[in-house]
Amino acid sequence: MNTQLVMATCILLAGTATADTLEVPGNYPTINDAVLAANAGDTISIAAGTYPESNIFIQSPDITITGAVNSDGSPAVKIDGEESNDILIAIGVVGATGATVENIIFTGSTANAVWIYHHSPTIRNCVFAENSTEFQGGAVWSSNTEARFESCRFVNNSGGTNGSAVFTKGTTGLRGTTGPTFQDCHFEGNEAYATVLVQFRDAHFEQCTFQGNSGPTTLAVFSGTAVVSNSLFCENQSDPITGPWNDDGGNEFHDVCPSDCIGDLNGDQTVGVDDLLALLDAFQVNDDGDCDGDGDTDVNDLLLLIGYYGATCS
């Protein structure tokens, strides 16, 4: 047979190969079974429910693991470690990018809920809740990664007196190396030495909220840099940021979290006389009466509050 014809046929067949969708539990009873069967480009689709699994190791860098969602878009799939001292999902293909994990609640790990090593996945619309460890990274432990965390929530995780809820590090001495990015993520009610600890790596935090976390520091940086923009720090127990960080603008630091309701300065879900008095008290003095988000209290805030006067917040 003509060698060139054989080669052309092989290339054609390779080019027409299609990715598969592996259904859990439809095709595979467990998530781990599906991951072991998956090839590059495949999608693992998980039906709504709770899956008591751990030690799921993603070996192919290009698969997508996607969970079902509720009507409001929140994850309807939960991976529950049931307080086992195991990693729930590990992603460790050296130097690889492309894996995606989305729409999953990770809970019940007493080691690391998600463990990432020399890989740069995308973690999207996931919730890390009530994971605990006495060491680093009860919710996420990562090393040498440029992972992206998009619209994720880190809630009520515990790192003890020395640990952290989220931990990311790089190779010792390589300060300035790009690290993970957290975009539109929410960190609330975590208890640890640091809610997030960055070490020997640069990490980016964009449009994030750090609220009601307890411990000596909220975001700790050691021999690296945190680049923070358009983020809110409020009602945290102590220092919002310790260590080197770059303020890329739009950040807010408050003892009391601002209300989502325009004009509701005292947080009682109504815009009334108490809010007007609070604004007048802060007028041209500080930003405590800032209603329009420009960083100060002026006549524009007064006009905006009057426009919403009497409104009830939902």
Which SSEs are present, and which pair or pack?
Elements: H1 3-15, E1 21-24, H2 31-37, E2 43-46, E3 49-51, E4 56-58, E5 64-67, E6 77-84, E7 89-91, E8 96-102, E9 105-109, E10 114-117, E11 119-124, E12 127-129, E13 140-143, E14 148-150, E15 153-155, E16 164-169, E17 178-183, E18 186-188, E19 194-199, E20 202-206, E21 209-211, E22 217-222, E23 225-229, E24 232-234, E25 239-242, E26 245-247, E27 252-254, H3 273-282, H4 299-308
Parallel strand pairs: 1-2, 2-5, 3-6, 4-7, 5-8, 6-9, 7-10, 8-11, 9-12, 10-13, 11-14, 12-15, 13-16, 14-17, 15-18, 16-19, 17-20, 18-21, 19-22, 20-23, 21-24, 22-25, 23-26, 24-27
**Termini gap:** 74 Å
Mean pLDDT: 88
Rg on CA atoms, Å: 23 Å
Structural class: mainly beta
Identify low-pLDDT runs.
8-16
**Strand order of the biggest β-sheet:** 1-2-5-8-11-14-17-20-23-26
What would the principal axes of the Cα set say about the shape?
Answer: globular
Main sheet record: 10 strands, parallel
Report the strand count.
27
Helix content: 10-25%
The number of helical elements comes to 4
What percent of residues are in strands? 35-45%
